[in-house]
Specification:
single chain, 626 residues, alpha+beta, 12-stranded mixed beta sheet, 11 helices, 29 strands, globular
């Protein structure tokens, strides 16, 4: 039997049935998964399997007499009248009520609860700097370990900063699963303001991605395409992003077309990232430079993958991309954003929409546990029994605690970042330190001396850098000789978030030797900071001195400063292009943090304790993602 529906007819049937049940269409359980599948996977695909021997057609594919016309099928049977088709559609609804039909995509039968990945898989990530940052891959690996601690799955990253879609990446193993997200560098670094025709660019992108898909399929790998994330054109940054978003949106359409033609999978990463951005407060931006998803943006990319690949399912069955399941309506809140000692543990405030008996499972490193809790509208406090030794995080490093709340088939996953950092106390409004190199430099291992002074609401950083040769040639400002000053001036409710916002700044103090020595402040993040910065310096026989004063108006209605804060965060990084070994760009931070990009470590900036809020010289910051 061959069943043919239009999407409009299905939505009408769904709405009518839900109305009879006096519930919202999305909440009508027998049809909600099917509706979600339609919205997430069939939109723009043309024809895709609903169940065995069935197909979607568009309303345009109905002939003038109202008959359904069969598409893309070798079967001979076809409905000649809408009356017969309506009778069969009613039978399908009955079957859905009885739960007897599965809802595979691309016409395949699969267990709805199986994970896309299988034991012994070799998973390769292909991408540009967004992938090379290695944030979403690491989080995916951590969530995968939470659900499948004994699985033997290799997860590799071949992302390379700056590459375009036609780049031929290197790999150290033959993958069984490949995820590809490329396209950003195909459009930035160029001027598209006067490029009305996208045809040439789209054709080149289609050819490059198709070639990648086919080459990996020849190796026997299953390919998942990810729609490339968009630029945020609200930014005025170093990147030339004007008129680029339209290209990336069009690339998303190309990705869906390639997935259909080459019979591979795809995940709407860009679209779900935009929906997540729309749900954020106005000053919480997921691409602080207009290009790179950072912090929460990277975590949302990971969430799109673990939900659509159904990490929670068993590692067996047919590989299948699925629609995300409805979330269990339970929320968690950190009682404190700091853990001053591992003996304190981590305390959460939990609540739910109604009285629920919830199973809580957690894991951190190799420690695991579970507990049954009664959660309702009135908040309760709860502390997972994580061993102190597991909660002990090395200075400058971070760990992740993963928790899942479940009731029946509904789940809610949380990720808690623990970042270990130093706490400094002011003495007469001042604190100072040194920056040392691990390797030999022409000037020796002492890289710099620095000093922080508070002057009312203003804060002044100053010091001396030992650098006899100043290099200013690199294209990227953060690769030129000079300093980077990271600042977290957020109030206590947002301090040490993993995502920067308008109260976080990355100020570059770029040194130049010719024709005159100068120190130029360049705000890479939070460009309005430029209105409240004064900087300068002098050349010396061994390097240069520098100073930077921050405080005052950054706009006509807003000021910044440290006077009203109990504490704030900073890190100072010296950039030097000469070294005895491994010539090239070298970064020397006041606090060493274990990450590729400093923006990943804004939850581990050195804390300046102005009001005696921290009892110890080190503390652990806590951040909750859910």
């Amino acid at each position: 039997m061959f069943i043919v529906w239009t999407r409009r007819e299905f939505e009408q049937k769904l709405t009518k049935t839900a109305k009879e049940k006096n519930v919202a269409p999305a909440a009508y359980s027998p049809l909600a998964p099917l509706r979600a599948s339609v919205q997430n996977f069939h939109l723009g695909f043309g024809y895709a399997g609903l169940c065995k021997d069935s197909v979607w057609v568009s309303d345009a594919d109905r002939d003038k007499k109202g008959n359904m016309m069969q598409k893309n099928s070798t079967k001979k049977s076809v409905f000649k009248s809408s009356r017969n088709a309506s009778w069969v559609r009613c039978m399908v609804v009955v079957f859905l009520f009885l739960g007897m039909l599965s809802i595979p995509i691309h016409g395949q039968a699969a267990k709805p609860d199986s994970c896309f990945l299988k034991n012994k898989d070799r998973w390769l990530f292909v991408g540009d700097s967004i992938t090379n940052a290695d944030i979403y891959r690491q989080l995916l690996l951590r969530v995968l370990q939470f659900y499948h601690p004994d699985a033997d799955i290799m997860v590799g990253n071949s992302g390379v900063a700056g590459v375009t879609s036609d780049y031929q990446e290197k790999r150290d193993f033959t993958p069984t699963v490949v995820t590809i997200m490329l396209g950003m560098n195909d459009v930035i670094h160029q001027d598209h303001a006067f490029t009305p025709d996208l045809t040439e660019k789209l054709n080149g992108y289609r050819d490059a991605i198709t070639q990648k898909v086919q080459s990996y399929q020849k190796l026997g790998a299953t390919v998942i395409l990810m729609t490339p994330t968009y630029t945020d054109e609200r930014f005025s940054s170093y990147f030339n992003i004007a008129s680029t978003r339209r290209f990336l949106e069009a690339f998303g359409t190309v990705i869906r077309e390639i997935a259909q033609k080459e019979k591979c999978e795809w995940i709407p990463v860009a679209e779900e990232l935009e929906a997540f951005q729309d749900a954020q407060p106005a000053d919480r931006l997921l691409r602080i430079d207009g290009v790179h998803p950072n912090g929460l943006g990277q975590y949302q990319i990971a969430r799109s993958l673990w939900q659509h690949m159904n990490f929670a399912g068993p590692l067996n069955g047919v590989r299948k991309i699925v629609a995300p399941s409805p979330e269990l309506p339970v929320t968690a809140r950190l009682v404190s954003r700091f853990m001053h000692s591992p003996s304190e543990g981590i305390t959460f405030e939990l609540r739910a929409d109604k009285k629920r008996e919830v199973m809580v499972r957690w894991s951190m490193d190799k420690a695991r546990g579970e507990e049954k809790l009664s959660v309702g509208p009135d908040p309760i406090q709860w502390k997972p029994a994580v061993p102190e030794v597991v909660l002990t995080v090395p200075l400058g490093d971070q760990r992740k605690l993963v928790m899942e709340f479940s009731e029946g088939t509904q789940k809610h996953l949380c990720v808690i970042d623990l970042g270990r950092t130093r706490v400094l106390k002011l003495v007469n409004g001042t604190v100072s330190g040194e920056i040392m190199a691990k390797e030999e430099r022409p000037e020796g291992k002492l890289v710099a001396r620095w000093k922080l002074e508070e002057m009312g609401n203003d804060v002044c950083f100053s010091g001396e850098v030992l650098d006899t040769e100043i290099v200013k040639t690199p294209m990227w400002p953060f690769m030129r000789d000079g300093l980077q000053l990271w600042l977290d001036l957020r109030p206590a409710t947002r301090f040490a978030d993993i995502n920067p916002d308008r109260d976080v700044a990355d100020l570059m103090l770029s040194a130049r030797d010719t024709p005159y020595f100068s120190i130029t402040p360049l705000a890479w993040i939070s460009p309005r900071l430029m209105y409240a910065v004064a900087a300068g310096g002098e050349r010396t026989a061994t390097g240069y001195t520098w100073h930077c004063v921050i405080g005052g108006n950054v706009s006509d209605v807003r000021t910044i400063g440290v006077g009203a804060l109990d504490y704030y965060g900073f890190n100072l990084i010296v950039c030097d292009n000469d070294a005895v070994k491994n010539p090239g760009v070298h970064y020397y931070p006041a606090q060493e943090n274990q990450c590729i990009d400093p923006v990943e470590s804004i939850n581990r900036l050195i804390i300046v304790d102005r009001k005696g809020k921290f009892p110890n010289p080190e503390t652990t910051t806590l951040h909750l993602f859910q």
